[in-house]
What we know:
Largest sheet: 5 strands, parallel
Bound molecules: zinc ion
Strand content: 5-15%
Shape: globular
Order of helices and strands: HHEHEHHEHEHEEHEH
Number of domains: 2
CATH class of the largest domain: Alpha Beta
Strand order of the largest sheet: 3-2-1-7-6
Number of strands: 7
Amino acid sequence: xxxxxxxxxxxxxxxxxxxxxxxxxxxxxxxxxxxxxxxxxxxxxxxxxxxxxxxxxxxxxxxxxxxxxxxxxxxxxxxxxxxxxxxxxxxxxxxxxxxxxxxxxxxxxxxxxxxxxxxxxxxxxxxxxxxxxxxxxxxxxxxxxxxxxxxxxxxxxxxxxxxxxxxxxxxxxxxxxxxxxxxxxxxxxxxxxxxxxxxxxxxxxxxxxxxxxxxxxxxxxxxxxxxxxxxxxxxxxxxxxxxxxxxxxxxxxx
Length: 254
Ligand SMILES: [Zn+2]
């Protein structure tokens, strides 16, 4: 929240200086408009981009030289099993950010993800993309119900959280601090929800990937499932090493 408070302070300072310097001139209104513009731009970046660590501190890369694959919005009855098969064959540990509602619909898949050595994170219960606009009580409810759904299946709570579409606000920061959850962002967004051509998506990812990256995929998409084996093979040729299945739980701490 420090960056948010600094932005507020900067805004107050800009307004005060503008008033002091230009109070008797029309230029005051221009100076005021510029101050508001700067405040809103910084605030918007803070809401939209987790990696700015504006309201809260999110982990957006690793420190151990490995790359971590993360899969959001599952479990999906069609694609999650196929993605798990690829990860099993390639001996790669991934982190699945699960939607509570889908977890309750596909409990066997949640158990399989855990049994095969992957990490599980909370991605809220309903994945409401407007959650960051709702009050603190609603955010707490969504995260709590997401956790309850996961707990009811694997008998343990998760310590990882990723907000739907990555937007945050001061309420999120307060709730996540209260729940003592680690917010995990990403350093490489695949845009698998946007790309239609598999070759273009692979090309973009292989050009961009580097060690310590946390890669954001979705395990409910056909294109992600289709490109995954080729993406892993080409990344390995680029000397990228993915977190192995046998790696301990603390992939973020080393
Ligand atoms: Zn999502």
